[in-house]
Amino acid sequence: MRIDGRDYRTIWLDPDGRRVHVIDQTRLPHRFETLALDSLDDAARAIRNMVVRGAPLIGVTGAYGLALAVARDASDAAIEAAYARLLATRPTAVNLRWALDRVKALLLAAPAETRAARAYAEAGRIAEEDVACCESIGDHGATLIRAAAEKNPGRPLNILTHCNAGWLATVDWGTALAPIYKAARAGVPLHVWVDETRPRNQGASLTAFELFSEGVPHTVIADNAGGHLMQHGRVDLIVVGTDRTTRAGDVCNKIGTYLKALAAHDNGVPFYVALPSSTIDWRIADGVADIPIEERDAREVTHIAGLGSDGVVSEVRLTPAGSPARNWAFDVTPARYVTGLITERGVCAASKEGLARLFPELAA
């Protein structure tokens, strides 16, 4: 995607093919900065501290983190230790485990002297596959958006999204935002309601940053405004991402998604979820019971950072100093509230049968 006239991906290598670079998403939207990852420690820290975030990008960063580790020590023990270190950084997004499993299996079956080169090559393949998947998701989702727009001629189609599932959450294009980018570039008139997404405000900071950079009409709203807009007919379609999807079609996304799905169900608003197949956890069927929900530092709830009139980014406290806080990062939306899943192979019902139809070799 393009920022200030330059094309970027969220993760890339130095010309020497070894050092890894990422966009520091903790600095957005007020500062655009990149960060170099030189070691396993750097990669683990970047994932844990949300310098990189979004299920697909976490997976790719984890794969490169293994490559960085193997470049220093290619022994079986070092690979196992690096794998465990990276896997522990973020528990909810299944892409991380998927990518780490893939790279680790390849490395342990290879001679030690070839492992570093193989690790970098496999991480690169995972990155390229993610770009292709997201662009295909965009194509399939844009067809839905175009059809919805044709039912509402004479005005822009109003789409609501929650959190950030754009190109910043992947290597390029994004998941939930990819259909919006594709449709907008094809000339479909649309407007995006951007949930702020407390407590980390990924919608207000990252999604708004992306849409502004792409020139897509949008409006940032408070998280609790979505239901009101739906009641008054001002939301035509909802598209969100997911960090883990069960084989039965339950989806786990940023906290607050479940409430949007309930409001959409009550108001007859189609609720779609966009995802690459790497986000499907075929081991589990009951998302509420079986998906581990990350609980993050309460400080993300009690404090907030912003740009002051003096041009300085600073943090302030929102709550009384003695008030405790809890910070669950995700919630689960049961499949019965999901209109459809937008994948790289097409759109399907949020069900075991729907997913198995598109991915029979994985469902088996």
Topology, pairings included?
Blueprint: E1 2-3, E2 6-7, E3 11-13, E4 20-23, E5 34-37, H1 40-48, H2 55-72, H3 76-87, H4 94-108, H5 115-150, E6 157-161, H6 177-185, E7 190-195, H7 202-214, E8 218-221, H8 226-231, E9 237-240, E10 244-246, E11 251-254, H9 257-267, E12 271-274, E13 280-281, H10 287-290, H11 299-302, E14 303-307, E15 313-317, E16 330-333, E17 340-343, E18 346-348, H12 352-358, H13 360-363
Parallel strand pairs: 6-7, 6-9, 7-8, 9-12, 10-13, 12-17
Antiparallel strand pairs: 1-2, 3-4, 4-5, 10-11, 11-16, 14-15, 17-18
In words, what does this structure look like?
The record marks 163 as: Transition state stabilizer. It comes from Methylocystis iwaonis. With 364 residues, this protein is of the alpha/beta class. The protein has two domains: 2-129, translation initiation factor eif-2b, domain 1 (Four Helix Bundle (Hemerythrin (Met), subunit A)); 138-363, Rossmann fold (3-Layer(aba) Sandwich), CATH 3.40.50. It is built from 13 helices and 18 strands. α2 runs antiparallel to α5 (115-150) and α3 runs antiparallel to α4 (94-108). The two termini are 36 Å apart.
Separation of the first and last Cα atoms: 36 Å
> What is the strand arrangement across the widest sheet?
8-7-6-9-12-17-18
Count of helical regions: 13
Number of domains: 2
General form: globular
Here the CATH topology of the largest domain equals Rossmann fold
Low-confidence stretches: none
Mean pLDDT rating: 96
Strand count, sense and closure of the main sheet?
Answer: 7 strands, mixed
What's the total number of strands? Answer: 18
Radius of gyration: 20 Å
Beta content: 15-25%
Output the CATH homologous superfamily of the largest domain. Translation initiation factor eif-2b, domain 2
Protein name: Methylthioribose-1-phosphate isomerase
Active site: 243 (proton donor)
GO molecular function, one term: isomerase activity
Pfam families: IF-2B
